[in-house]
């Protein structure tokens, strides 16, 4: 079995090992999985003594429960057929042992085992999230908010110093709950490999935050087609690829999930010289609404948050405002960046400074399932009558 196939069956096993919670909103208590495929581990799995877990080269918990031995999985079959094979094997194990396994042996491949960190204080314990565009101001704020609720977070962005710096900073908060993945959301293979990488580390994904996006300042008559197409590639196609992979992954895992798209107030109240951004983000927003229709039957909720004018998250500056700030200042006769922030604060009804923390709180409202909601949008803008969703 090739590694990419292993990573695609890990979420299947993770879904089958989840326990029903009895809570209609959060239906499963999920688990964190570890996967080991070292030579010594594979030799042990293939040996006649593999029933003696104390001889295993890696320390295993729950050794009183025998492992589920998957020796005859047809790895060349379509992934749906592989899921059926594993489901049948799991059911037979439960019938025989009156419990679910804690350890799974994959012949010639390695060992999968549960490695939970249960703590009921955290509403997102043992849940795994992918955040795209994590190295920006909003993305870093969302990562921080998820970690504070006990979530395991894969911060994804284009590889580089910004992403590395963010992950290094967040490791100080929750070292074992964060890692970074260089991922290009405009590339199908890169997105699929990103999901596989998360499965390799924690067994699967439950929450996907589609946050990545880029801006452009230009009037319609001066806009170059290739510049518009660049935004369309990232903001629309990137969102589509993220939604597509998220939907496939969550359906295969079989325990529901949450997708949140970071939209913008410009979907509802577009601005002059901001046509490319407004139009492409509106397309991404509409894809999210359609995904909410298509995925609801699988208990996969898709919602949107629509912020306005988030300039930074602590020391992490907004890449969007670095690009559009000078034009916005010129357009409004402002010469100081602080004055520009004051302008956006003064124009909303609450006179509120909108922060990455506020956006993260809106995301957390959805992913902690405070209400049975899908296909909805939370404005995070201090109150902009022109941008109220209609």
Largest sheet: 7 strands, parallel
CATH topology of the largest domain: Rossmann fold
Strand order, biggest sheet? 9-8-7-10-11-12-15
Low-confidence segments: none
**What is the helical fraction, as a range of percent?**
40-55%
Question: What is the general shape?
Answer: elongated
Mean pLDDT: 93
Can you identify the CATH class of the largest domain?
Alpha Beta
Q: Supply the CATH superfamily name of the largest domain.
A: NAD(P)-binding Rossmann-like Domain
Q: Give the oligomeric state.
A: single chain
What's the count of strands? Answer: 15
| Series of secondary-structure elements, N-terminal to C-terminal | HEEEHEHEEEHEHEHEHEHEEEHHHE
Rg, rounded, reads: 23 Å
Structurally, how many domains make up the residues?
A: 2
Number of helices: 11
Give me the secondary-structure category: alpha/beta
- Approximately how much beta-strand content do the residues carry? 15-25%
What is the CATH architecture assignment of the largest domain?
3-Layer(aba) Sandwich
How far from one another are the termini?
50 Å
What is the fold's blueprint, element by element?
Elements: H1 3-17, E1 19-20, E2 28-29, E3 33-36, H2 39-46, E4 68-70, H3 79-97, E5 103-106, E6 110-114, E7 128-131, H4 137-148, E8 152-157, H5 161-174, E9 178-182, H6 188-202, E10 207-210, H7 225-253, E11 257-262, H8 275-295, E12 300-307, E13 312-313, E14 316-317, H9 319-331, H10 337-347, H11 356-367, E15 377-380
Parallel strand pairs: 4-5, 7-8, 7-10, 8-9, 10-11, 11-12, 12-15
Antiparallel strand pairs: 1-2, 3-6, 5-6, 13-14
């Amino acid at each position: 079995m090739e590694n990419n196939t292993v990573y695609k069956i890990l979420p299947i096993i993770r879904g089958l090992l989840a326990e029903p919670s009895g809570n209609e909103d959060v239906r499963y208590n999920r688990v964190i999985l570890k996967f080991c495929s070292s030579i010594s581990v594979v030799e042990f799995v293939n040996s006649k003594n593999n029933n003696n877990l104390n001889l295993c080269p890696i320390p295993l918990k729950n050794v009183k429960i025998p492992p589920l031995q998957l020796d005859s999985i047809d790895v060349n079959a379509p992934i749906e057929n592989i899921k059926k094979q594993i489901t049948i094997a799991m059911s037979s194990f439960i019938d025989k042992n009156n419990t679910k396994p804690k350890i799974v042996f994959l012949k010639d491949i390695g060992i999968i085992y549960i490695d939970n960190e249960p703590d009921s204080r955290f509403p997102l314990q043992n849940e795994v999230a992918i955040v795209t565009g994590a190295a920006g101001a909003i993305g870093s704020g969302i990562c921080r908010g998820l970690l504070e609720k006990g979530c395991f977070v894969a911060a994804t962005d284009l590889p580089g110093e910004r992403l590395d710096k963010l992950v290094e900073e967040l490791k100080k908060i929750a070292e074992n709950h964060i890692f970074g993945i260089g991922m290009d959301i405009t590339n199908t293979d890169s997105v699929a490999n990103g999901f596989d990488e998360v499965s390799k580390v924690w067994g699967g994904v439950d929450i996907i935050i589609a946050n990545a996006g880029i801006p452009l300042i230009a009037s319609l008559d001066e806009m170059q087609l290739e510049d518009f197409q660049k935004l369309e590639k990232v903001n629309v196609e990137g969102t589509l690829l993220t939604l597509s992979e998220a939907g496939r992954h969550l359906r295969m895992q079989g325990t529901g999930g949450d997708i949140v798209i970071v939209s913008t107030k410009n979907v509802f109240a577009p601005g002059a010289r901001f046509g490319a951004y407004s139009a492409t983000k509106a397309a991404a927003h509409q894809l999210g609404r359609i995904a909410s229709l298509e995925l609801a039957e699988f208990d996969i909720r898709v919602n949107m948050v629509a912020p306005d004018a988030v300039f930074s998250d602590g020391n992490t500056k907004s890449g969007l405002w670095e690009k559009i700030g000078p034009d916005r200042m010129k357009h409004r006769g402002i010469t100081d960046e602080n004055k520009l922030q004051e302008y956006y604060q003064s124009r909303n009804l609450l006179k509120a400074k909108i922060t990455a923390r506020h956006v993260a709180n809106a995301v957390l409202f959805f992913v902690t399932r405070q209400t049975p909601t899908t296909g909805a949008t939370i404005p995070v803008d201090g109150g902009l009558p022109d941008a109220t969703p209609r």
